[in-house]
Amino acid sequence: MNDLVDFWLEHLPAMLDGLLVSVQVTGVSLAIGVPLGLMLALAVQSRSKPMRGIAIVVVEVGRGAPALILLQFTYFGLPNAGLSLDSFASAVIALAWCTGAYTSEIIRAGLEAVPHGQKEAAEAIGLNHLDALRYVILPQALRVSVPALLGFSILMLQASSLCFAIALPELVSQAYLIGSTTFRYMPILVLAGLLYAAICIPATIAVSALERKLGAHA
Amino acid sequence: MSLNSSSIPQADVASRPPLLRLDAIGKTFGTHVVLEDIDLSLAAGEVVAIIGPSGSGKSTLLRCINQLEPPTTGRVTIGDTTIEAGHTPTRRELMALRRNIGMVFQSFNLFPHLTVLRNVSLAQERVMGRTREQADAVSMQLLARVGLADKAQQFPSRCSGGQQQRIAIARALALDPQIMLFDEPTSALDPELGLEVLAVMRELAEGGMTMIVVTHEMRFAENVSDRVIIMADGRIVEQGPSGTVMRNPQTERAQRFLHAVKDR
């Protein structure tokens, strides 16, 4: 037992470095991906046909292709087209794409949950399209979407472990590296799992609490 | 002021230039004809009640006036803005129209995420360019006018239906509209709460506001409005001074409708 604790303590700094990279790549991907999802949700409902078409393609590819394929496409595929990116940038592009595609559906559901009368009331008091969206529709739609968006964010942190496949030094890569030098895969992978759980379990509990709170005022 | 007669004599109203004109308004949804060839002109200060059976096109007519529902044919003129059916109005035309027309909905449609005060202030800031302080000051006056100044900081969900509808009236008045449209404002309220809304509307009418009221409140139509329009099957079947139409309708369709509602 002592041996295990010593092993974990010895490698904890490297593992925490990895966790930091995981959190960073997830955070940046979400910071780009969620606004992208909002734009896609609006574009999918747009009156302009080309706009709708482009948005649908982006969303369906993002949802249809496994995240691992998107990651490998941006890291190994794009250099063939003359665009070489480091693993962090590739990871952000792929995960932001995936985030945008999935969150656009979450936000679209939120937009559709706002009663039609709200849009009519906003129009009737003379608000233009953008103001109606900004002051009346979106605040209500996002309130509906927030729990699902946070839940998705937790999933993305877990999905960031796929970046191991493109040599990003995140948590799983670190664990694998330590495993391959010490040949003690089992304990180090357990530690990686515990570190994910240390973030994800409290976050999940916080999200359900928030959900109950928002639900109480709906 | 007498509550039983309108504040403006009929002859006086008829001699003024129209504030709102509808020419040959028609609306079809697919092959379904909802409105057919509606002409209507409204003088400043006039209060018109539109009554008629459900599905007669009353609400659609109101919604055609402020282009929530673009008419299929015809013309809407208010002041020097004319909107012709068939081509999409410019943003500026729509703004001009909607700034001049306040609308009150059957289901209130207050913004649930904003306080009562913000509900009334929002359009003043975004559409009229008032500062928040100016807008809030005007909103407080309007809320006082509908008797709800003490609710300013509450959220709409904390207010009764009657209060919500009075707030919605204050919100519609906030743009200083020339005309107010009411789409069955009391239909979603139980009778007692409906009364407080009708009282506010009556005060507005007496204050000289030009109003079109789609309603099932026969007494309001008879006592407060100057003119009553009876619609059926997308057409105006009878119109005239409220007393005459309500007590002595000429057409068979109007008689049938009034007979049915008065028998209840």
TrEMBL record, chain A:
Gene3D superfamilies: MetI-like. The chain crosses the membrane at residues 20-42, 54-75, 144-168, 188-210. It is a multi-pass membrane protein. The lineage of its organism: Bacteria, Pseudomonadati, Pseudomonadota, Alphaproteobacteria, Hyphomicrobiales. PANTHER family: GLUTAMINE TRANSPORT SYSTEM PERMEASE PROTEIN GLNP, MEMBRANE COMPONENT OF AMINO ACID ABC TRANSPORTER. Keywords: Amino-acid transport, Cell membrane, Membrane, Transmembrane, Transmembrane helix, Transport. This is Polar amino acid transport system permease protein. The keyword Lipid metabolism does not apply.
Automatic annotation (TrEMBL), chain B:
Gene3D superfamilies: P-loop containing nucleotide triphosphate hydrolases. It is found in: Cell membrane. InterPro entries: AAA+_ATPase, ABC_ATPase_HisP-typ, ABC_transporter-like_ATP-bd, ABC_transporter-like_CS, MetN_ABC_transporter-like, P-loop_NTPase. Residues 20-258 form the ABC transporter domain. Its main location: membrane. Keywords: Amino-acid transport, ATP-binding, Cell membrane, Membrane, Nucleotide-binding, Transport. It holds the Pfam family ABC_tran. It comes from the Bacteria. The keyword Nucleotide-binding applies. GO terms for molecular function: ATP binding. It is a peripheral membrane protein. PANTHER family: AMINO ACID IMPORT ATP-BINDING PROTEIN, GLUTAMATE_ASPARTATE IMPORT ATP-BINDING PROTEIN GLTL. Belongs to the ABC transporter superfamily. This is Polar amino acid transport system ATP-binding protein.
